[in-house]
Amino acid sequence: MTTTLTLDRGDGRLAYDVRGTGPLVICAPGMGDIRQTFRFLVPALVDAGYRVATFDLRGHGESDTTFVGYGDEAEASDIVALAELLGSPATVIGNSMGSAAGVIAAAERPELVSALVLVGPFVRNPQINAFQRGVMNVATAPLWAAAVWKAYLPSLYAGRKPVDFADYATRTNAAMRRKGYAKTFSKTAHTNTHELSERVLSMVKTPALIVMGELDPDFPSPAGEASWISEQLNAEVLMVAEAGHYPQSQRPEIVTPAVIDFLATIAHRA
Q1: Torsion over CA: 57, 59, 62, 64 (sign)
Q2: For residue range 180-229, what is the model confidence (pLDDT) as tens digits?
Q3: Could you give the CA distance from residue 44 to residue 199 in angstroms, rounded to a whole number?
Q4: Lower CB density within 10 Å: C or N end of the chain?
Q5: At 212, phi and psi to the nearest 5?
Q6: 155: left (phi over 0), alpha (psi -120 to 50) or beta
Q7: Measured over all CA atoms, what is the biggest interatomic distance in the chain, rounded to whole angstroms?
């Protein structure tokens, strides 16, 4: 059984766990999710000879709700702190806004990020108008954020659902219903923008793999977004059929071996 550890960041503690031995991999989740989103990927990485750390975002999962800052830059600083604590450069596997955080960490502290795997990546702001932004801000207000997320979450799993989707959705929804957690989810949603990650993309020189679900509803053209990111990073792209925003859990039989093969290629280059 994996033991939950905590990392003191001054204004709050991050919940994380570490499994395995070998080169370090840090898995960074996205907004509204918990670290168990990587539940299918982590055991395979451990079996392949990697030391894997997963953590909960500020104000998510088992992490504290006392933090002052939220969003991409805060998550990037937490990735850096975790890599420094564990004493090793890391491959960062980021899902959704975790991808933007990984990009920022790689740009600002390249000696700590040896490779990037960006899954369902938000690395620039979506093209939405002021009305759509207003609707989003209202929908993620603390009073009803948990209910809205519960209703919206299934749509992000367009295509095949994970085999344990019902149990996992229940777990993530329960995490947000705890006292104070809908408020911190709302803070993350309202303060999080991806201008910095887009601005620093050209600074990132580390090898990268883009993993995008062909049905990801967060992008008007998932393939187009993956192609654009690939051009900025000179990255490989894996488009995953019958998957939405969480291909790592929707199609683990495709994503897991691709990630392991990519990491093996990186090790060979080194």
Answers
A1: positive
A2: 999 999 999 887 689 999 999 999 999 999 999 999 999 999 999 999 99
A3: 34
A4: N
A5: -135, 130
A6: alpha
A7: 51
The mean per-residue pLDDT over the stretch 157-179 comes to 96
Q: Give the whole-number percent of the chain exceeding pLDDT 90.
A: 86
Nearest to 176 by CA among 95, 97, 60, 64: 60
Facing residues of 15 across strands?
A: 6
pLDDT band at 261, cuts 50/70/90?
very high
pTM over 0.85: yes
**pLDDT over 70 (residue 27):** yes
User: Which class for 184: exposed (0-12), middle (13-18), buried (19 or more C-beta within 10 A)?
Assistant: buried
Confidence label for 131 from pLDDT (cuts 50, 70 and 90):
low
Q: How far is it, in rounded angstroms, from Cα 176 to Cα 60?
A: 7
The number of beta carbons lying within 10 Å of the beta carbon of residue 250 is 25
> Which strand ranges, in their side-by-side order, compose the sheet holding 208-213?
5-8, 13-19, 51-55, 24-28, 90-95, 113-119, 208-213, 236-240
Residues 31, 51: Cα–Cα separation, whole Å? 24
Residue 208: partners with Cβ closer than 8 Å, 6 or more residues away: 115, 116, 117, 118, 233, 234, 235, 236
Q: Can you read off the two tokens belonging to residue 145?
A: 């954020």
